[in-house]
Amino acid sequence: ALIITDDCINCDVCEPECPNEAITPGDGLYVIAPERCTQCVGHYVEPQCQLVCPVDCIPVDPAHVESEAQLKEKFRRLQLD
Ligand code: SF4
Ligand code: SF4
């Protein structure tokens, strides 16, 4: 999963781009729900939020480093919701 850092300027550009509805306005800054972020695996070849973020503040979350296989499995689970 990716994570939004303190550099976020709350521009709201990323939220509508997420195919998994993983991004929400949090308490101050936008946040990504790690259980919903597949790093766009299953939908796109690149993370869409990273592509649109004007301040480049969405790295991989060191607490949620996942393999391609794990991200694909998360994608499959989300389709069943
Ligand atoms: Fe959503 Fe993709 Fe960004 Fe994860 S990487 S938060 S799935 S847009
Ligand atoms: Fe924050 Fe970047 Fe999303 Fe804008 S696009 S709300 S700066 S994370």
UniProtKB/TrEMBL annotation:
Keywords: 4Fe-4S, Electron transport, Iron, Iron-sulfur, Metal-binding, Transport. One of its GO terms (cellular component) is cytoplasm. PROSITE patterns: 4FE4S_FER_1 (PS00198), 4FE4S_FER_2 (PS51379). Residues 1-28 form the 4Fe-4S ferredoxin-type domain. It comes from the Bacteria. SUPFAM superfamilies: 4Fe-4S ferredoxins (SSF54862). One of its GO terms (molecular function) is 4 iron, 4 sulfur cluster binding. Its cofactor is [4Fe-4S] cluster. This is Ferredoxin. The lineage of its organism: Bacteria, Pseudomonadati, Pseudomonadota, Gammaproteobacteria, Alteromonadales.
